[in-house]
Amino acid sequence: MQEMGHEQLVYCHDEASGLKAMIGIHSTVLGPALGGTRMWNYKNEDEAVRDVLRLSQGMTYKAAVAGLNLGGGKAVIIGNSRTDKSEAMFKAYGRFVNSLSGKYITAEDVGTSKTDMAWIASETAHVSGLPENMGGSGDPSPVTAYGVYMGMKAGAQTVFGTNDLAGRRVLVQGIGNVGSYLIDHLISEGAKVYISDIYDPAIEALMKKYQGLTVVHPSTVAEADVDIYAPCALGGTLNSESIPLLRCSLIAGGANNQLAEESDMQRLMDRSIAYAPDFVINAGGLINVYAEIKGFNRDWAMEQTRNIYQQTLAIFEQASNDQLSTNKAAIQLAQKRLSSASS
Ligand code: NAD
């Protein structure tokens, strides 16, 4: 906690429901710490602690760069999301969230669903990203995808000297919620879209919707001959094995934690591959949840998300001026906002 600058780490245990959870509050300098609850079958408690510390720190940076008055937090529940869930567990967890009196606001994440959020909401008001029929802001994915699209265009402006994506070869890895909305934008602009997913029915559905898509097998994504690679599946796809194979000039996608390790940023720089930092360009979902808390509508969220274009351009420029990686430049921008807010 000291090394990464966390404020608080809460261990939660409920014997009756089997709940074992941790809530990480990295920073409340800019506002309440907001971040989803992940349910994952961690091998041990150490692994869960590391994950909650890393994820909550990432949320601080994401909110700070997006200009939101939110801090960074995240929670993890240890368990198998397919077999270990119960209403009692999420209600017990909701009471722990409530005990923090709004210092931490939760939301959905990997392994948790709308139903789980509804159970949490029965015990606390400090839950966001609820379905529209519960007064929430609904699916954040279209907003996230729009921000990724804006970030990609800013990256294209920097790398290719034009933000026009018409004719550009763009590979979208993971055509789930974010990936498929991103493809809608790319197709309307006339990009040449390549798709990859491990779930064949998703591929088939998209091939029916759009003509002219090129399908890339999941095992050959890294070596695909494209201009832009958009990781929109899981994190860690930029690593020591994939980076030497890449043929793209720009990476801009929606997945969280795309760099497997910090040193992978240097690997990308060594290969002159530009990288639009994930936590900068995938902030649309967080902006949408912020709108829900503040009582603003979807139009406001989309308008704010449009700013990701300017933010990404500024980060590329700062990185070039200061001879830094774009990831480092984005972190510095976040840290600057945090230190000016706390001094
Ligand atoms: P999703 O589950 O709807 O879609 C993910 C897709 O990736 C699925 O179709 C899955 O089959 C596919 N996939 C998984 N492994 C793959 C692989 N190895 N190769 C190719 N495809 C693979 O998830 P989502 O909501 O679209 O989120 C995608 C990513 O964006 C995640 O990393 C998520 O954390 C991040 N993100 C999402 C949001 C949001 O608003 N949904 C916001 C910020 C960040």
Structure in a nutshell:
With 343 residues, this protein is α/β, with parallel strands linked by helices.
What can you tell me about this protein's structure?
It is a single chain. With 343 residues, the chain is an alpha/beta fold. The chain has two domains: 8-55 and 72-133, Leucine Dehydrogenase, chain A, domain 1 (Rossmann fold, 3-Layer(aba) Sandwich); 141-281 and 312-334, NAD(P)-binding Rossmann-like Domain (Rossmann fold). The chain is 44% helix and 15% strand. The protein has twelve helices and twelve strands. The chain has helices at residues 45-66, 87-99, 114-121, 141-160, 177-189, 200-209, 263-270, 278-281, 284-294, 298-306, 308-322, 326-342, and strands spanning 8-14, 19-27, 33-34, 37-40, 71-78, 104-105, 169-173, 192-196, 214-215, 228-231, 250-251, 274-275. The strands form two sheets. Strands 1, 2, 3, 4, 5 and 6 form a six-stranded mixed beta sheet that branches. A six-stranded parallel beta sheet has the order 9-8-7-10-11-12, sandwiched between helices. Helix 7 (263-270) links the parallel strand 11 and strand 12 (274-275). The model has no long low-confidence stretch (mean pLDDT 96). The structure holds nicotinamide-adenine-dinucleotide. Nicotinamide-adenine-dinucleotide is lined by residues 140-141, 144, 173-179, 196-199, 202, 218, 232-235, 254-256, 282, 285.
What is the CATH superfamily label of the largest domain? NAD(P)-binding Rossmann-like Domain
Structural class: alpha/beta
What is the mean predicted local confidence, pLDDT? 96
> Which overall shape is indicated by the principal axes computed on the Cα atoms?
globular
> How many domain regions?
2
Report Rg: 20 Å
- First-last Cα distance: 21 Å
What is the ordering of alpha helices and beta strands? EEEEHEHEHHEHEHEEEHEHHHHH
Uncertain spans: none
